[in-house]
UniProtKB/TrEMBL annotation:
It comes from Altericroceibacterium spongiae. Keywords: FAD, Flavoprotein, Monooxygenase, Oxidoreductase. This is FAD-dependent hydroxylase. Pfam families: FAD_binding_3 (PF01494). Gene3D superfamilies: FAD/NAD(P)-binding domain. Its cofactor is FAD. The lineage of its organism: Bacteria, Pseudomonadati, Pseudomonadota, Alphaproteobacteria, Sphingomonadales.
Amino acid sequence: MECDIVIIGAGPAGLAFASSLAKTGLSITLIDRQPLDAIAEPVYDGREIALTHHSQNILHDLGAWAYLPHDDIAPLQEARVLNGNSPFALSFDTGQTGAEALGCLVSNCHIRKALFRCIEGREKITLLAGQAIRSISHSQKHVAAELADGSYVTGKLLVGADSRFSWVRDQLGIAAEINRLGRGMLVARMQHEKPHGKIATEWFDHYQTVAMLPLRNNYSSAVVTLPIGEAEALMRLSEKQFSTEITQRYRHHLGNMELDGTRHLYPLATTWSHHFVSDRAALIGDAAVGMHPVTAHGFNLGLSGQRLLAEEVSSALRKGQDIGGARVLRAYEQAHRRAAASLYRGTNMLVRLFTDEAPPSRVMRHVALRVAQKMPLVRSSIRSMLMAR
Ligand SMILES: Cc1cc2nc3c(=O)[nH]c(=O)nc-3n(C[C@H](O)[C@H](O)[C@H](O)COP(=O)(O)OP(=O)(O)OC[C@H]3O[C@@H](n4cnc5c(N)ncnc54)[C@H](O)[C@@H]3O)c2cc1C
């Protein structure tokens, strides 16, 4: 099969990239190992994605926003960072920006479904679901993915959107920094007695991090980060024990809490690809940068990255240039690395500072929060990072 662009991975990044190019007339083939129904009707996976304003705009442009269930979009008015037993909270709100909210929370399964609907039925976009890939090869003008049945899909550009432990990245011979953190992030939707006031809290307690993300009505997404063994033990508790455990770990701030639905555990690893491109190929989404979820930037970054690449491809097409050529790839790599590097390093630094239990780090984070609260410039730059238009 021949096409212009081959995308491996039909997760949110791959689907967004395909729909960004849907109007260009380029023929696109998406390949994913998951069966079609898992891509078309993704089930709830516990992730509530905090979307920046910039991401909301991109989803609007793609047409995906209209497919989201609007009753399930939860506005985020304020974010608070708490440290250990200290009553002090560093807080961010919309300030003088005039915006109604810092951002909003949407379930990952709704985002994936909405992005799928954007490509569904498009004449020039083909989705090969439930397909394993055997190898990738390229010549001067083409790149080819060999499927498990021995057939080939060839294109002028191949895009790896196959997540942080990217098989495509390995096949392309691109090295990556991979940090397995030995910790797990457990996510679960909880119903609670007291209102959350649309305030998200990130509480770096001793030996655990607990975030509460405000959903609609008296529901929050509890995000608990622990050493992996402890997180697995929480997964094994009965629903009743689990509800009591989360209520206690959150020190009854929202009254009694009750588990609503399923729990999900994600072992934590961060990844940084040493290159985002190679001959006729590019990495997008988590395959390029696997962020720690604590600052809620993984999908946001992936969404803006795929847009950068789509703009370079569209511009080359308009000028009659090679859409998989070195100029396109270099421009994408430079722009995306510039945007991603400080977010990735900054997030990792924050995680180290706020999870290290050594006394100097405890003192340091206490000081860091106090200083940040007193410096309007620091707070407004963190606010603009949160709100990123
Ligand atoms: C608990 C949690 C909370 C998060 N919260 C936020 C948040 O608030 N804000 C935010 O911006 N981000 C958040 N993220 C990050 C966000 O979920 C990811 O950045 C995003 O899902 C990455 O999308 P992706 O398409 O790159 O990868 P994925 O979603 O992992 O999709 C990859 C796709 O590739 C396919 N695939 C993999 N390997 C192959 C192969 N060899 N062949 C064919 N197909 C393959 C898979 O089947 C899958 O469909 C969170 C993550 C977690 C774990």
